[in-house]
Amino acid sequence: MVLTEDFKMSRTDEVHRITENVYKSIMEQFNPCLRNFVAMGKSYEKALSNVTFAAKGYFDALVRMGELASESQGSKDMGDVLFQMAEVHRQIQVQLEEMLKSFHNELLSELEKKVELDARYLTAALKKYQVEHKSKGESLEKCQAELKKLRRKSQGSKNPSKYGEKEMQFVETISSKQSELDTFIAEGYKTALSEQRRRYCFLVDRQCAVAKNSSAYHGKGKDLLTQKIPVWQQACSDPNKLPERAMLLVQQMGSGSSTGTASLTMGGSSPLNTSKSNLSNLVISDPIPGAQPLPVPPELAVFMGGGLGHQARLMGSDGMSMVNGTTGLHGEEEYCYSGAVTVLLDRIILRWISISELRRGCR
């Protein structure tokens, strides 16, 4: 009986110590860690907010790139793709902002309120448990002390039977109080463990709320990107592909150039080509094919008198050749000199005409 009571007392004391330690662990370990968790969560929230701000600038710049592409001649479709990209990422960004709101309202704010209220609540709960435990323990110890005192009287008495009934009453009272104390300690232990578990469950529940929003954020992003990425990749798969309007203009330019080239090579001629190709086959005194009569400059008019050639100048009135104003063989040297001058003048005239034709062709 004594061994059973001693074992029972040691077990009761052990559970009592565990109960106190559970309360203390919540106050001294869980709550400080929770405060640190909230602080780290605020830092995380701030970092995500900065990312959101930077993302806005990034996608504004992407829209500007799309505007430039839309204004270009060969990449208007790329502008549409860039606009789509910016819009898709804007929708994803909106979902991210919703996740941030959930993170702040459903997790950080709730935990911050709990941790502030919890310190006072747990202190009061532990104190209440300790006071009741002390009261019940003292009441039990008092009954046990009375029983010992009664038993000493009974042992020293000549008539110990008269203490028997009273001793039985003390034993019953002590048993009742011990049972009451054990029940109280068991309930206190259960309450302490429940308080501990409730706090961890609340933390997990708040994390689940955030995880749902996070899942919605990632799910929407995945759906949008899975649908759009193949279209975007197809749009940029061929960098050499030009818009139909640009290709039509290229074809028109190409056909116009081919027509012009064909007309020049298959019978059409320009003054420039004539001057380059035909002049080499001309005799000095022959007229240039297709050339219009040109006004004779004053300095040459003296040599072209009356529209006659140099042969008219060299013929006398009787039809005989004149050399430097004389007839007969005695003027042979003067004739050679005069012939050289005539050839030189012909070349000057031909060169002047050729230059005029070339200038007209270039114009």
TrEMBL record:
Q: Which GO terms describe its cellular component?
A: cytoskeleton; cytosol; filopodium; membrane; nucleoplasm; ruffle
Subcellular location per the Swiss-Prot or TrEMBL entry: Cell projection, Filopodium; Cell projection, Ruffle; Cytoplasm, Cytoskeleton; Membrane
Q: Cross-referenced SUPFAM superfamilies, in alphabetical order?
A: BAR/IMD domain-like
Principal location listed in the UniProt entry: other
List the molecular function annotations (GO) for this entry: cytoskeletal anchor activity
Which residue spans traverse the membrane?
none
Q: What GO biological process terms are annotated to this protein in UniProt? A: actin crosslink formation; actin filament bundle assembly; plasma membrane organization; positive regulation of actin filament polymerization
Task: Name the UniProt key words of this record, in alphabetical order.
Answer: Cell projection, Coiled coil, Cytoplasm, Cytoskeleton, Membrane, Phosphoprotein
Domain IMD as annotated: residue spans: 7-256
Q: How does it sit in the membrane?
A: Peripheral membrane protein
Spell out the PROSITE patterns in the cross-references: IMD
Q: Spell out the protein name for this chain.
A: Brain-specific angiogenesis inhibitor 1-associated protein 2-like
Source organism: Salvelinus namaycush
Which gene is annotated as encoding this protein in its UniProt record? LOC120060841
